[in-house]
Amino acid sequence: MITLSGATRDFVVGEQTVHALNNVDLEVEAGEYIAIVGPSGSGKSTLLNAIGLLDRLSKGTYRLENHDVTGLSDDELARIRREKIGFVFQFFHLIPRLKASANIELPLTLAGVDPAERAARVTAVLEDYGLADRGHHRPDQLSGGQRQRVAIARATVTRPKLLLADEPTGNLDRTSGKDVVHILERLNDDGITLLMVTHDPELANRAQRKIRMVDGAIESDKAVVSL
Amino acid sequence: MRIVDVLGYAYGGVIGYRLRSLLMLFAMAVGVASVVMLTGLGEGARRYVTGEFASLGTHLLIVLPGRNETTGGAPPLLGETPRDLTLDDALALGRSAAIRRIAPVTVGSAPVSFKQRDREVITIGTTAEFLHVRRLKILSGRFLPQTDPRRAAPVCVLGGKLKRELFGNRAAVGRWVRVGDRRFRVIGVLASEGRAIGVDLEDMVVVPVASAQALFDTPSLFRILVEARSQSLIPRAKQHILTIIRARHEGEDDVTVITQDAVIGTFNKIFTALTMTVGGIAAISLAVAGILIMNVMLVAVSQRTAEIGVIKALGATRRTILTLFMTEAGVMAAAGAAIGLAMGYAASAVTAQIYPVLSITAPIWAAVSALLLAVVLGLVFGVLPARRAAALDPIAALARR
Ligand SMILES: Nc1ncnc2c1ncn2[C@@H]1O[C@H](COP(=O)(O)OP(=O)(O)OP(=O)(O)O)[C@@H](O)[C@H]1O
Ligand SMILES: [Mg+2]
After folding, report:
1. Over the stretch A110-145, which tens digit does the pLDDT of each residue have?
2. Quick one: angle between helices A100-110 and A144-156, nearest 10?
3. CB contact under 8 A, B315 and A82
4. Does one domain contain both B48 and B127?
5. Residue range(s) defining the domain that contains residue B209
6. DSSP B57
7. Which residue among A13, A17, A45, A55 is best mutated to probe the pocket of ligand 1, counting the most ligand atoms within 8 A of its Cβ?
8. What is the ipTM metric for this complex?
9. B92 lies in a domain?
10. Could you say which ligand is closest to the alpha carbon of residue A55?
């Protein structure tokens, strides 16, 4: 599904060039569940952003579902994000003035889906994630765990094939973190390809495959042996 | 994205940040309201003045002694003092078939007294025709008799105010008053006019033209009022007047003929220009409101970077974001303008209650252009902030919490 070859992302800061990604080769099959770990500043977010087409590579090529997406225009990248990719962030990034249901509906609205269809899908995901009675609440009226569930609902309401989560539990207590991970895993069971950055070794060990990054490069990439 | 959804999103933005939205609405509303009110005022003044002139009588031409070069030619040569207009000049105009009535006018100031009461007022010397040409009404008695204009009859007609001041509530008709050093019998009193431009007809005395000429010891006329037979005959009447006078003045074009139409037309132009000017000045406040919108939208963009980052991550194109933010500015400008229109018309209505003479309603063109200008300004000043929003780097936008 994902093929990165020689992927490099450089940032020029003053006179210095930082190699946030340094010549990374990576192959991901559809339906995989991958945890990305590594010390702070090792390039995990940069890798995820590049895969999510929020960022462009400085060097190397990126093929998504057998299409070369390296040189596509901004608008084409936006369309692919809209259709194929879901994002979940550490800080939820819900829009504060919109109700939970409106937040979830947003990607469908942006894609121009018709209102009846939108309403049906939003109701369905609210139900799925145990938020049926929270649809009318604004984000500041929700707990952290609920907010992250709303964010996941928003990321998946368009039924993307690829779900990218950057420290989705980083801002949650243990219990709500678990809930969130369970939801992500259930989505993976239903066939979504899941890439999750985490600092929590216990969570990382739940994945099928664990990639460890150091200094912008992949240090190790191995299957997790389940006990 | 659907248009309804774009509007809904923009509306959400307006509602979601109440204070700044209220400020912007207010600024826009004040701008539009001032356009509506000021143009309304200008328009009211225009109507008032042209109405006043129309009330002086239609198809009216005024003959003045002396050439009045409006084109700004060389000053008249020495010794070329214009010939006076005389009563015979006025009577000669009767030859023209385009002319219905002629009223020669002499004006002077003289003390008018009855018993102990004494007033210094304007004395007008004219003929019976004056009543019709100036559309005056008689309150009691009658106007000057239809006799030979060259006869200096000792009769007079008093203006309403003068009558009240000299006689109070007692009847004036039939009494003798002194004008200057002569005695005149009062034969009528003029009704109040309500409106008048120029001479205050309330406060004057009217005597036969020959009497006035004798009183002031002058053979010349102040002017001649001429009424054409119809609107379409005005140009011909003017032509005839010029020809007749030229023939009588040894080939010299030494009179000026002003037509009522030309006067009204000139005032119309002046007041339309005035209306446009005050409208333009008010429009500046609209531009200020536009700049305020830009400012506030710029702040909105920096406050909402995370939101912009999110909708980008969710697949919004640059264009979509541009549209969303410009629509928000446009919606706000339009709403402000609508409120301003309502405010402006309400204020005009209130003013009209207080000063009914100036019936002030903004012309539709002014209201429509204020509305359009407001929306255009909203969009134009919305471009820069919207572009900034569209150009935001989603990663940077999302990195901030
Ligand atoms: N916009 C940027 N400009 C300059 N340098 C950047 C930029 N974004 C990232 N970097 C640098 O690239 C490197 C990798 O950053 P990245 O955010 O991918 O790390 P990370 O592994 O996600 O760290 P963390 O676990 O703290 O989130 C860091 O050294 C960082 O300073
Ligand atoms: Mg990171």
Report:
1. 999 999 999 999 999 999 998 999 999 999 999 999
2. 20
3. yes
4. no
5. 102-227
6. -
7. A45
8. 0.90
9. no
10. 1
